[in-house]
Amino acid sequence: MITPMQIKLARTALGLGVRDLATAANVAPSTIHRFETDKGSMHSRTLDRVQQVLEESGIIFIHADETAGPGIRLRK
Questions:
Q1: In the chain, N or C: fewer CB atoms in 10 Å?
Q2: How far is residue 55 CA from its own chain's centroid?
Q3: Tens digits of residue pLDDT in 36-76
Q4: 4-74 CATH
């Protein structure tokens, strides 16, 4: 599962505002904001939609392992 920080990093890397991502994923901007600030959770379907939008926009999510935490990369 992707983390709130990964969503914020991905959104920033793509130059998207909270409203931009919310519109693209068809969710309320407050849902994105609450999740990014760790003040709320997202239903798994909603999180999947947000992840899909970001991946289709060129983001690769990197999961944490024993040497490093989670992160993102941009597709070529």
A1: C
A2: 9
A3: 998 888 999 999 999 999 999 999 999 999 999 999 999 98
A4: 1.10.260.40
